[in-house]
Amino acid sequence: MPAAGWGHMVRMTQIGLPSRVRACLFDLDGVLTPTALVHAAAWKQMFDDFLHDREGDGFRPFDSTDDYDNFVDGRPRADGVRTFLASRDIELPEGDDDDPPSAPTVHGLGNRKNELVLEKIRTDGVTAYEGSVRYVTAVRAAGLRTAVVSSSANTRDVLVSAGIEHLMDVRVDGVTAKEQGLRGKPKPDTYLEAAKQLGFDPGQAAVFEDALVGMDAGREGSFGYVVGVDRVGQADELRRHGADTVVKDLADLIGRSV
Ligand SMILES: O=P(O)(O)OC[C@H]1O[C@@H](O)[C@H](O)[C@@H](O)[C@@H]1O
């Protein structure tokens, strides 16, 4: 048997990653589960109600593709509120984490959106992408370690609801990032923390992301490989933001050599 073990030999041809990669860091929403759609719909409903109340019938609605991808996707919740409002030249007081959903503050709006997300997840449940489960299972069988790295404070609930919590060795999410004072994506802090907890340098870790800010984090953190996951037809944008490769589904990497 070779010094690195058979798992090492097998994975080079079967999981589409360079041999230096020993750990896989997966974003959640849009990569492991289809919950990016739930978030996008909740953001739209919340911002459209807010803009309508503020500007009347002539308001410019939140665009679930452009506004979501550029200002909200992948960022921690309050950063998403701030970044979108800034794009419309709107300033609101910060407020507090426990502001009621009716409060006209950054956190009030964030809490309003979160109520919509939780309602949808509780009603419909979450099913993981089948190709993602197959791919994560394959990388673990090849001896790599795995982490989920998400801005979402709902990460644990979504993993449990989807039945995939046991597939992740480490979780760095919106809750743990806040506890540890880690900056959110597009900063690489949460991905760096996950690599550290798994015991690897960034160069030995691959980042799997569907969000443009996640690509930026992968590039700024000098990770060993960055996989862009294109669920919405933004492959070129993902490449421009630093993807080494772009796939439509994680299972597309199975059987691919790099
Ligand atoms: O509001 P949460 O569940 O903490 O999630 C924050 C963000 O988490 C990211 O994973 C999603 O891409 C965003 O859409 C979402 O807004």
TrEMBL record:
Highest taxon of source: Bacteria
Catalysed reaction, written as an equation: beta-D-glucose 1-phosphate = beta-D-glucose 6-phosphate
MF-aspect GO terms: beta-phosphoglucomutase activity; hydrolase activity; metal ion binding
Residues that span the membrane, as ranges: none
What InterPro entries does the entry give?
A: B-phosphoglucomutase_hydrolase, Beta-PGM-like, HAD-like_sf, HAD-SF_hydro_IA, HAD_sf, PGP-like_dom2
Q: Which UniProt keywords apply?
A: Carbohydrate metabolism, Hydrolase, Isomerase, Magnesium, Metal-binding, Phosphoprotein
Give yes or no: UniProt keyword Transcription regulation: no
User: Positions of the region Disordered?
Assistant: 91-110
Q: Which cofactor does it need?
A: Mg(2+)
Entry EC no(s): 5.4.2.6
Family, according to the entry, reads as follows: Belongs to the HAD-like hydrolase superfamily. CbbY/CbbZ/Gph/YieH family.
* NCBIfam families noted in UniProt: HAD-SF-IA-v3, PGMB-YQAB-SF
The name on file for this protein is Beta-phosphoglucomutase
Organism the protein comes from: Actinacidiphila reveromycinica
